[in-house]
Specification:
By secondary structure, this protein is mainly alpha-helical. The protein folds into two domains: about 1-30; about 30-125. It has seven helices and no strands. The longest helix has 23 residues, at about 1-25. Residues about 15-20 have low confidence and may be disordered. Bound molecules: heme C.
Length: about 120
Amino acid sequence: MKTFSVALLSLFLVSSFMINDEQTRTGLQADPEHSISEIMKIAHGKDSLLNKVAGGDASEEEMKKLLALYVDLLDNDPAKGERADWEAATTKIIVAMNRVMLGQEDAGKGLKQATNCKACHDKHK
Ligand code: HEC
């Protein structure tokens, strides 16, 4: 009987986690393809894709790649900090990235501001 209740309790816990998980999927968040650490290495590592894009030297394909990485960043959950802060910061980056792709004036500068390393690391790293 005891094992039965334990099994039932864990089933209940697992299903309530699943329901909670569904409730956070408002359309804003999907399953990430890369971890935050992978995204940082590709987008902000050596010969940074960000610098190339912000400097106006990137191809259409490179811009799409960076945009996908930033959407992926939003899809992740950082180990530290509030989800709402994370969504605000990553959404700002995605909008800034879209402005670059639309060729708007000073969009590269805006992208650099939105991707302030220290501001985000202080809160979420
Ligand atoms: C929107 C938030 C955010 C921004 C902006 C951001 N980072 Fe990060 N970064 C993180 C988080 C969160 C981690 C911790 C990832 C982990 O360890 O899981 C991280 C980790 C890193 C790492 C370590 C990766 C590893 O695991 O080896 C490097 C390098 C890095 N960031 C570079 C940068 C640079 C350079 C910039 C600015 C151009 C930057 N990041 C901007 C959130 C951000």
